[in-house]
Each structure stands twice: as structure tokens, then as C-alpha cells.
Amino acid sequence: MILLLLTEGKNRSLVFSQKKKKRRRVELFFLLLVTAISVLLSDGEPVFSQNEKNSTFNAGLKILRLDYTCDEKKEIITLAIWYPTYEKQERFVYHQGKNYENYESKLAFNAPVSEEHRPFPLILFAHGAYGDGFSCAFFMEYLARHGYIAVAPDFKDTKGPGYTEEIAFSRIAGGNTASAAAILRTAKQFVSDMEANRDLLLWYLGKYRLQPSSFVIDRILEMNRDKNSFLYQVIDEKQIGMCGHSLGALTAMGKIGAHPEPGFKDGRIKAGLLFSGPVYPFENTVGNIGVPVMMMRGDKDPANLGGNLGLERKIAYQRAKPPKYYLVLKDATHFSFTSRVCGDTPLYQAAETSFQAKAICRYGLAFLERYVRENIYAEKVCREIFPGLVYYEREELPGVIFRWGIEPASREGISEAIKEEVKKKIREKNKRKNNRDTLPEKNPVRI
Predict the structure, then answer these.
(1) Peptide bond preceding 161 in cis form (omega within 30 of 0)
(2) Does residue 382 lie within any of the structural domains?
């Protein structure tokens, strides 16, 4: 009798278990079906969650000025902050000074941050040498529309031989800019001086890039705790990432562990997104980076800094620890990772229509979703082969390597794209000079 009861109990448990497994399979089927439908209806937008609405926000923008002290000298750091909002977007023109064209977009200037879906991750962006915080506005807007706080300061860049006098293509608020020809001469001297003196470059990065980066993060997080700040309780302080272009990519690498001085590392940063970055002077220390990295470059984008030393961009990927990603964009130069990639198309449209801009935005967002927001569903998008790539390599786990496409051959020396960029700026400047009496001023940024 006891044996019979035990047998019946086991049979009932088995039947119950089988029903439970069948129910789970049915639930999984419908879950996958909903996901597939979401992808089809999303019109190309990344879908990162199976159980949350993949809604997007409007993009807000605010300009701030922070008091900063360097070597007992008081300075001002101007920064742009893009953020999610539901306020109405209106036409906005980014004025980038006499050396850059103006870029048109739509956003909500000085609008309040969205009350819904808080808190948001924080991304710090570092621009390239002699650029400004607006240089990658198309991607910053894209992040804001997908629920991120994106902060981009104007870093102080200087010219040789002493590297104390400030010079730039453009500034968020104008001022301290030089002619395109002067910037070209400065850039050439910068590359020559820094390749000849590694310690000089390490000093330069530390003083003008790495220290201000942590200062900006500190101040933004202080505002997150300040009841009187527009950023009060807006940021998830455990979800911080960093992105950079060119010298800004080196800046990001230095902040996540590549600089030989450990004190420059900021442990709050969980991932590094690197656009067209060199490896020099970190070719021997890039392995010290302890967070995931995604590196993008163009197929027409040879190394400028370090190129004369035979140190190509991919060395940074090869010597980094997994998880790591390496993408090469089709028909892309060094400046394809700035808003120039959008051409005459408004930024908010180009992020969805330009195959290069769309690839940058899609992969960049998916990477940050996966490793800053820790959204595992973003892995699917990270692994996709999206139009706009010519080569893709990734190593998410040690020794598990994926390669797709044919990697273009590298070229050494300073990038011809930089020279062509400066020549183009000179032509544009001359054209604007001839037409300056007929061109109306449009929507200047007010500080």
C-alpha cells in the first residue's frame, strides 16, 4: 500500500512537471513571437527588451559653465548636456564658429528632464583635438532620445612648443578659435612632438583631458544630489560610461585604466566606446583596461598619432581584454565619427537615414545598453551585421572570436583625411566670407 501511494505520487508529480514544462514552452513561443513582431514594427530601431515598451524620448539640450581650477588658475569649462524630455522639439542650429559649418536639428532647448523612466545612465563624451563638445551632436542626441544623459565638455587644447596657449577649431560658446590653416600647422607639430616624446603626451592627456573628465563627472553627480538642480535624481550613479573621438578616444582609454599612472583611472566608468582612436601612447598598457570596449574606425582612416611609429589603431583592440568589439565602417574617414557624417541632413534625420551615422548610433547604443545599463537583450543587436560595415571582429569571451568581412589594409603616417578636412574648411571659410553680407544669423546658442 505504501509503495502504491509513493508510485502514484511520483506519477502525479511527473504529470504536473510535464504540464509545467509544456506551459513554459507555450509562454516562450508567444514571448518570441511578440519580440519578432516588435522588431518588424520598429522600422529598424533597436529592440532591447522583451517585456518593456521600446519607446523613445525627445532630446533636450542645456549649456552649462563650470568653474574649474587648474594649477591654481581659475578657468571655465563649458559643456553641453543632452537629455530625455517629452517637451516639444523645435528647430535648432548648432553654431560651431568660423571654422565649422552649422548643423541643423530639432530639440527642446532648456526643457525639463523627463519625469518618466528615471533614473538614466550618464555618458561622458570627449571630443577630438582642437574640437568642441558639439562635434558629435548627432550621437549625443540619439542617446538622449533613447534614455541617456549625455555630457560633452569643451576640453582645453593647446599648441606647441610650450603647450600652454589655448587654440581650437571651435568652441561651444565661441572664442579662442584659430584659422583652419593655423590648426593644421598646430596639429602637425602636435603629432611630431608627441611621437618624439611619450612623456609629453602622457602629461598633456593628464592635465588637459583626464583631470577635467573626472571633475565634470564629479560636478554632474553633485547636481544629481542637489534639490535645486535640474538634474536632481535624474542619473543612475551606478551606470556611467565614456565615449570619445580621436584624442577623445585616448582620453576615454586613459580614464578606464590605460594611463600608466593608476590615479587617472575612474572606477565609476563601466564601459568605453572609442571612435577612431589611436593606441599610442598606451600600446603597452591598454591591457590594463578592465571594462568592456567597443572600437570603431573607418576604412579610409589610418592612424594619425602613432602612425609614423607603425602603431595602427587595431593594436588597441588586439591588446585589450574581452569583452571587446572592433568595427570598420564603409567609406568612412576620421571625421565620419563627427556630425560631418550627416552632411546637409538635419542631425535627427541623419541618425536614421545615413548608413554610416545609423551604424554608429545603432552599435554604439547597443554596446552602452549591454555594458552600462546591463541590458542582456542588447547582445543581439551587438552581434548583428548591419549595413555600413566592411569588417567586424569581436571577442566577448576569452578565446571565442568572431570575424566577418575583409579587413582593409592599414596605411601609416598622418591621415590624409585631416589634411583634406582642413582644406575643405578653408574653402568653406572663403565662401562664407564672400557671402557674409547675405547670410542671416540663425538661432545662436545663448549662454
Answers:
(1) yes
(2) yes
In three-state secondary structure terms, 306 is coil
Quick count: other Cβ atoms within 10 Å of Cβ 427?
11
Chain CA centroid to CA 387, Å: 19
Q: Kindly state whether residue 109 falls inside one of the protein's structural domains.
A: yes
Work out the number of other CB atoms within 10 angstroms of the CB of residue 414.
18
Q: Domain holding 69: CATH number?
A: 3.40.50.1820
Interatomic CA distance for residues 362 and 354, integer angstroms: 12
Length of the chain: 447
Angle (nearest 5°) at CA 375 between 370 and 379: 50
3-state secondary structure 357-424: HHHHHHHHHHHHHHHCCCCHHHHHHHCCCCCCEEEEEEEEECCEEEEEECCCCCCCCCCHHHHHHHHH
Residue 71 has φ and ψ, to the nearest 5°, of 55, 45
CA distance 376 to 370: 6
Phi and psi of 385, rounded to 5°? Answer: -100, 105
Alpha helices in 197-279, H assignment, sequence order: 198-205, 211-224, 247-253
- C-alpha distance from residue 85 to each of 111, 239, 315 (Å): 7, 19, 40
If one counts the domains in the chain, the total is: 1
Q: Is the dihedral of CA 156, 160, 165, 169 positive or negative?
A: negative
pLDDT digits 0-9 by tens, 256-267: 999 999 999 999
CB atoms within 10 A of CB 439: 9
Host H or E run for residue 240: strand 235-245
The answer to whether residues 268 and 255 touch, using CB atoms and an 8 Å cutoff, is: no
Rounded to whole angstroms, how far apart are CA atoms 80 and 65? 9
Strand partners, 91: 106
Ramachandran region of residue 25, left (φ > 0), alpha (ψ -120 to 50) or beta? Answer: alpha
Half-sphere exposure of 126 (CA within 13 A, CB side): 34
**DSSP secondary-structure letter at 165?**
E
Do 92 and 260 touch, CB atoms closer than 8 A? no
In which domain, by residue range, is 424 found? 58-435
Question: Residue 17 forms beta bridges with which residues?
Answer: none
Query: Would the pLDDT of 34 be above 90?
Result: no
Beta carbons within 8 Å of 346's beta carbon, 6+ residues apart: 103, 104, 105, 106
Give which of 302, 328, 303, 323 is closest to 392, Cα–Cα.
328
Give per-residue pLDDT as tens, 59-116.
999 999 999 988 888 999 999 999 999 999 999 999 755 556 689 999 999 999 999 9
